[in-house]
Amino acid sequence: MNSRFCVIIAAYPASSVGYYYSTINGKLRSAKSLNISGLGNYTADSLGGFSVDILFSDSILSLDSVSFSDYLGDIDKDEADGYTDNLIAGLIHLDEVSFLRTDELDALQPSSFTLATLTFTAVGSGKSDLKFDSIDLSDAELPANTLSASASGTYITVAGVTTVPEPSTMVLLFLGLSALAVPCRWNRRN
């Protein structure tokens, strides 16, 4: 599998913007990271929450799962809460908010890190752009301040998608061919 992928959301003041591309060759599943850069490096400004809409071609890709990182707090320990909505075909809505204090987030977050990991399955061949429809970032202050953001364009290319027949298909084919062979043998004997 030849896979390179990066989605960078740059919160300003930011100095780096990256591009992530992906090619899925022969594999039907690929995990991709949603990253942020340009924050304080274990100092303020820290990210306290985000909301992102990502558009993609649902004739080429299908979203399997989303897992949030622990840089806004551990969801299992009720330090953060994450929400994913994929009810509309071709649209992923991600939200995460931290319940940690500003100083805790400052100590937890480097200048760039992964927000979430998205797992896609290829359902067709072609190129699917990943477009950011809306990006809302807020810092860890109360009340929260909105951070400026920009996103780099990205895409996923799916090449060489081949379906593998299920065992039940092979069994049905064998039974069908056997059913054709039985009358031929019966005619030869009579």
List the helices and strands and how they pair.
Elements: E1 7-11, E2 21-25, E3 29-37, E4 47-55, E5 61-68, E6 80-85, E7 91-98, H1 102-108, E8 112-122, E9 126-139, E10 146-147, E11 149-151, E12 154-159, H2 167-189
Parallel strand pairs: 1-3, 2-12
Antiparallel strand pairs: 1-11, 3-8, 4-7, 4-9, 5-8, 6-7, 9-10, 9-12
Give the key terms.
190 residues; five-stranded mixed β-sheet; elongated; seven-stranded mixed β-sheet; 45% strand; 2 helices; alpha+beta; Immunoglobulin-like
Radius of gyration: 24 Å
Give the helix/strand class: alpha+beta
**What is the terminal-to-terminal distance?**
56 Å
Q: Helical element count?
A: 2
What is the CATH domain class? Answer: Mainly Beta
- On the 0 to 100 scale, the average pLDDT is 74
Number of domains: 1
The share of residues in extended strands comes to over 45%
Task: Indicate the percent of residues in helices.
Answer: 10-25%
| Unreliable sequence segments | 1-21, 159-164
Tell me what you see in this structure.
- By secondary structure, this protein is α+β, with helices and mostly antiparallel strands.
- The chain has one domain (7-162): Immunoglobulin-like (Sandwich), CATH 2.60.40.
- It has helices at 102-108, 167-189; strands at 7-11, 21-25, 29-37, 47-55, 61-68, 80-85, 91-98, 112-122, 126-139, 146-147, 149-151, 154-159.
- Strands 2, 4, 6, 7, 9, 10 and 12 form a seven-stranded mixed sheet that branches. Strands 5-8-3-1-11 form a five-stranded mixed sheet, with no helix packed on it.
- The longest helix has 23 residues, at 167-189.
- It is elongated, with a radius of gyration of 24 Å.
- The N and C termini lie far apart (56 Å).
- Mean pLDDT is 74; it is low at 1-21 and 159-164.
